[in-house]
Design a protein that fits this description.
This protein is an all-alpha fold and 260 residues long. Helix content is 72%, strand content 0%. α3 crosses α8 and α7 packs antiparallel against α8. The longest helix has 39 residues. The protein starts with 23 loop residues before the first helix and ends with a helix. 25% of the residues are buried.
């Protein structure tokens, strides 16, 4: 279970009642800051159009995906599989944060392709972690030793070998090459990827972030053990959003969001 953590808040920030759960005061501070930052005045001080910032971030994500794809086709080892999986997850989180700006049809297309890629390489990454790290730790806690441990490890290694062979063939297949080309084409589509109404999109983005913070808050206040995996996803999504859109505000907004 999570232990109580007490945060020192700046003077004058909004507070809520605390009951010993992690992050309550800090969540209140984040909510107040995001509401203030997206209220309009700070957003209007940006020196670069918001859609230009979003377009640049998507192109950077496309470049990283291409780099990881080439590395996976060349080596197909544990590190290259992990790198592509991380790149896919970061791109999906980036798209989630930009959803209010992206046209619905394009969002569904690129999101579906990235999910398909993640499903293909996810099992191999899980087996890599199981074989290299988790299996020995779990066996030690369970008291497995000698022939029993070697038998279990042999099963895991054989499954990993088959999974790696499948992934190695898949990444050079025409279907995967078409998939990567479609993802790259959508991420680098430029202005036609975005909706026209930016002010309304800013308001939708603010609501999405506040919903994410509320979800984190609900998990932290659960009577039973909170879902740490769900909390981690919410934190990463909010962080990616703040990293991208923090560049669109004034110097004051950037400093505050950097702290968040």
């Amino acid at each position: 279970p999570l232990q109580p953590v007490h945060h020192q808040l700046p003077a004058g920030t909004m507070r809520t009642s605390t009951d010993g759960c992690v992050g309550t005061d800090m969540i209140a501070w984040k909510g107040a800051t995001i509401r203030h930052w997206t209220s309009g005045s700070l957003m209007q001080e940006s020196s670069e159009p918001l859609t230009s910032i979003l377009d640049r971030k998507l192109r950077e994500a496309a470049t990283q995906l291409d780099r990881c794809d080439a590395d996976l086709r060349r080596r197909c080892d544990a590190d290259s599989v992990h790198a592509l999986r991380v790149a896919v997850r970061r791109t999906r989180a980036l798209l989630w944060s930009m959803k209010p700006w992206i046209r619905r049809r394009h969002y569904r297309e690129v999101g579906g392709q990235l999910r398909a890629i993640g499903r293909q390489i996810g099992p191999l990454r899980d087996l890599d972690v199981l074989a290299d790290k988790a299996l020995a730790q779990t066996a030690a806690r369970a008291g497995l030793a000698g022939d029993e441990y070697r038998q279990v490890r042999g099963v895991v290694l054989r499954r990993r070998l088959r999974s790696r062979s499948t992934v190695r063939k898949w990444v050079v297949s025409p279907a995967f090459r078409r998939m990567m080309q479609e993802v790259d084409g959508l991420l680098t589509r430029g202005p036609t990827l975005f909706r026209k109404s930016v002010p309304a999109a800013v308001n939708r983005w603010r609501k999405r972030i506040l919903r994410g913070i509320s979800g984190f808050d609900r998990q932290a206040h659960k009577a039973q053990r909170p879902d740490l995996h769900r909390m981690r996803i919410l934190v990463k999504r909010c962080r990616y959003s703040l990293e991208v859109l923090g560049k669109a505000g004034s110097g004051k907004a950037r400093r505050r969001l950097r702290d968040l």
